[in-house]
Design a protein that fits this description.
Layout: E1 3-6, E2 27-32, H1 40-53, E3 58-63, H2 65-72, H3 76-93, E4 101-104, H4 109-119, H5 124-128, H6 131-139, H7 149-162, E5 168-171, H8 176-194, E6 216-219, H9 248-256, H10 274-282, H11 286-298, H12 304-327, H13 334-361, E7 370-373
Parallel strand pairs: 2-3, 3-4, 5-6
Antiparallel strand pairs: 1-7
Helix pairs in contact: 2-3, 2-7, 3-12, 4-7, 4-13, 7-8, 9-12, 10-12
């Protein structure tokens, strides 16, 4: 049986009666580009918050596989593999597909269509001023040798979010500039096509006839986890990451590499270093954290090695349940594909409604359509 999704476009002007604000659960959209397994930086920066929100919000978690092609178009097999690995990590970290919708970006036609429309609302130089985009060009050593699609992905992220008319986006702090671009697009669309005044408060756009809510960033408690090099943000590409599949010994070894510059257990230390970000993030007892910081500052006969061992122990207690959950999904892709197929079908239902409202508002909503997966 095919799963069909109707587009409710009728050619009529959109109205606030279609607003998600009338729902009891607010909408969350966030996700990951498949560049390999997720690491601790992803967990504390965003995924932990997703796990909390899936019980209280309508959550959509995107596997942004099209964005992966902006720099790895010559490696389609790797991208496909990474899509499945990230879902395994989501499940291991606590995402429940019965509570949240996990889906593939490439399976949602409305995202591509809205990307094209939103690209008309943004000057090229505004896209290129995005600091996250500029940083990626620098970090990845792209110079001038990047595809046209690379800057376009910044526009695509606005479509990822607005296709679901999301109210909130759990992100790490480095992604906040991308969200600001999304907020600009939503305001501009609502003003240009829905008659919303440019003086309108962000929270009132939908109530006054706008198609899109103005989404807000939901930055995790740790917006930017430093990698084990003690300098850069945790990243697989920089080889400074801790993964949930790392063994206890690997975790201990990696934590042991964190450099603080302190000379001895009796030398006063500055707790504003990478090691103590791990102490504050992963040791669950606030009193113990305060004690370690106090002794460290005073040089009270407590060495970096002792603190690193305690951090590694706390990390392994956090990671062990994740490792065990992940093992349940290894060696068999079909359950992961089933989750993605079901989630993508649900995502289509939501985004086709959004696309119809946007097309009607922009006056190119002429016909209804149906999108179906062949379940053979």
């Amino acid at each position: 049986m095919n799963r069909s999704v109707a587009n409710p476009s009728s050619g009529s002007k959109s109205s606030a009666s279609h607003a998600p604000g009338s729902q009891t659960r607010r909408i969350i959209l966030t996700g990951d580009t498949p560049t390999g397994q997720l690491h601790l930086g992803h967990y504390v920066g965003s995924v932990k918050r997703r796990v909390e929100l899936q019980d209280t919000h309508e959550c959509y978690f995107i596997i942004a596989n099209l964005h992966a092609y902006t720099t790895r178009a010559d490696k389609p097999d790797e991208i496909r593999r990474d899509c499945l690995e990230i879902v395994r990590d989501h499940l291991a970290m606590g995402i429940d597909p019965r509570k949240a919708t996990i889906f593939l970006q490439s399976e949602i036609p409305a995202i591509a269509e809205l990307t094209f429309l939103f690209a008309m609302l943004l000057p090229f130089n505004r896209v290129m001023r995005n600091p996250t985009l500029k940083d990626e060009i620098k970090v990845k050593g792209l110079g001038e040798n990047y595809s046209f699609g690379f800057p376009l992905y910044a526009v695509g992220q606005t479509a990822d979010i607005l296709s679901f008319r999301a109210h909130g986006v759990p992100v790490g702090e480095d992604q906040v500039p991308h969200l600001e671009l999304t907020r600009e697009v939503a305001r501009r669309f609502n003003q240009m096509y829905c008659g919303v005044s440019d003086k309108t408060d962000d929270d009132d756009h939908v109530k006054l006839g706008g198609v899109f809510p103005i989404p807000k960033a939901d930055v995790g408690k740790v917006g930017r986890l430093v990698g084990i090099d003690g300098v850069n943000k945790m990243s697989k590409s920089l080889n400074n990451a801790i993964f949930i599949t790392d063994t206890p010994k690997q975790v201990q070894s990696k934590i042991g590499k964190i450099f603080t510059g302190r000379q001895s257990p009796t030398a006063p230390g500055d707790p504003n270093n990478a090691l103590f970000q791990y102490v504050e993030t992963f040791i669950p007892d606030p009193a113990r954290v305060a004690e370690l910081k106090d002794r460290y500052k005073r040089g009270d006969n407590i060495g970096d090695g002792h603190i690193k061992a305690e951090v590694a122990d706390a990390l392994n207690k956090l990671l062990e349940p994740m490792r065990q959950r992940r093992k349940q999904y290894e060696g068999n892709d079909q359950p992961i594909l089933d989750i993605l197929k079901e989630g993508s079908a649900r995502a289509i239902e939501t985004t086709e409604k959004t696309l119809a409202l946007a097309k009607d508002a922009a006056r190119f909503g002429f016909f209804k359509r149906r999108i179906a997966y062949d379940n053979r």
